[in-house]
Design a protein that fits this description.
Elements (H helix, E strand, L loop, with lengths): L3 H4 L32 H7 L21 E3 H6 L1 H7 L2 E4 L2 E5 L7 E3 L7 E5 L2 E2 L1 H9 L3 E3 L1
Parallel strand pairs: 1-4, 3-5, 4-6, 5-7
Antiparallel strand pairs: 2-3
């Protein structure tokens, strides 16, 4: 049995008439074309919020995101902080000024095994506990 396309070879419109064979004519347009008419039921069923504005986006000048660092990242970057002048080493104890480094908050993920005196604006309870267990302290 010949394929449908082979069957219509030589026919100008392949049995579709004049208009429906052009572009996306027979399917009622491309994309969201006709969503208020031929695609109305689909829109009501699957995309109820198609029309109108939804929510809002705050201006970036108003949004203030905290710059954070975890305890494990602090431990990993101690030598870099010393080299950049944000920290000083006194024997086996470090004094780190995270506020000067542009970090707003210290978080408690990971572990630290060095005594560190940290100056930072905010600290999570877990981070404070881990720093104090390691022999350091937090100066806010």
């Amino acid at each position: 049995m010949p394929s449908r396309t082979k069957k219509f070879r030589g026919s100008r419109t392949h049995g579709r008439g004049k208009k429906s064979g052009r572009g996306a004519g027979i399917i009622g347009g491309r994309g969201n074309a006709g969503i208020g008419k031929t695609g109305k039921i689909w829109m009501l069923k699957y995309d109820r919020d198609h029309y109108g504005h939804h929510g809002f986006k705050r201006p970036q000048s108003v949004v203030e995101a905290n710059t954070t660092i975890n305890v494990c990242e602090l431990r990993k970057n101690l030598e870099r902080f010393v080299a950049e002048g944000f920290a000083a080493k006194d024997g086996d104890k470090y004094t780190v000024d995270l506020t000067k480094a542009g970090i707003d908050k210290l978080l408690g993920s990971g572990n630290i095994d060095v005594a560190v005196v940290v100056t930072v604006a905010e600290t999570s309870a877990k981070a404070k506990e881990k720093i104090e267990v390691a022999g350091g302290s937090i100066a806010e």
